[in-house]
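Input record (one chain):
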Amino acid sequence: MTSIVVHYSEIALKGKNRPWFIARLVNNVRHATSDLDIKSVRSLMGRLEIVLGPTATYEQVRDRLSRVFGVANFLKAARAPLDIEAIAAAILRDLGDIDTPSFRVSVKRADKRFPMNSMEIEREVGGRIKLARGWHVDLDNPQLTISVEMLTTEAFYAFGKDRGPGGLPTGVSGKVACLLSGGIDSPVAAWRMMKRGCLALLVHFHSYPFLSRASQEKVRELAQLLTTYQHRSRLFLVAFGEIQRQVVLEVPAPLRVVVYRRFMMRIADRIARANGARALVTGEVIGQVASQTLENMSVIAAATSLPILRPLVGMDKEEIVAQAERLGSFEISVVPDQDCCQLFTPKHPATRATRWAVEEAESHLPIDELVSKAVADAEQEQFYFPTVAAGQTLPAR
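The corresponding structure, as predicted from the sequence alone:
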């Protein structure tokens, strides 16, 4: 069995834009498997086919497809002629020493011109398998499902099925700039936006040299993990300690956290606009910490005219932790570090800051100068998955 058939679901509802979504999915699958022995990736009727080379294994490709957004499910398959006898014979040959107490045959016809309907094909193919193997047919809870897909010129058959991550192909929804800390929430927020088809720029604020480089090392690990889903990432490392120091000198202690966050929004806004991103993304959750009350979130959002997307805003911590564990970011996020949130943080931050009070406190700061310097001094790092070989170049996107 040398093919993998990939199904998508939400893409099928995109009407006139469907060919563009499918083309992006094909491109993303090709990129995800570019270092494997893949002969071709092509679009068929309502599905994709990946043709494996001699050294590629299903397990290798399964790992990659489990991280390609837009993939609903996939299965290892083989081709057969559009003939009931040929299909049944090919299935029996490839079943090998597989044994099962019960089975069923599930048929889909992409081309309805085939003279038999799906139920008739299931009965005919299933009857031949039952006669040859003596297995019990169970349509409700079979131990083995044999899938048959009838196309225009050929059929595919497969045993079993693996789930994909769903969502939309990364890149179809445009760019966003994600504020990425070393904590639990923000990597999950970035991942959820990638799942909705967004290409995420990653922006991290650190307080080196006031604090250690530990938060930068953590965020690099998180960036590399997230890159396994969007295949290419750009990370901006923004020095924030000097801004915090000046805020401490000019802003009353209760308002400092809100002012810090407003500076982050301004800086992320500049980076986003310079790189074609149309929105900012945060891991904020209503009521989780002092800066995330509705009042404070409103004042913080006023510092930018870009939309701020908060994909976790209504989740509780247990839900976010569970998602982080599934993603694989949790073990990285819980490693102790010194991030910028720990520097110059007041003991009793305001939970209901007003815009006029914050703007009055900020009026003593050289806002534009501080923001411009932070953006100009930001370091940029690129991440790729699969890893780019020395001398290899990739097209810009």
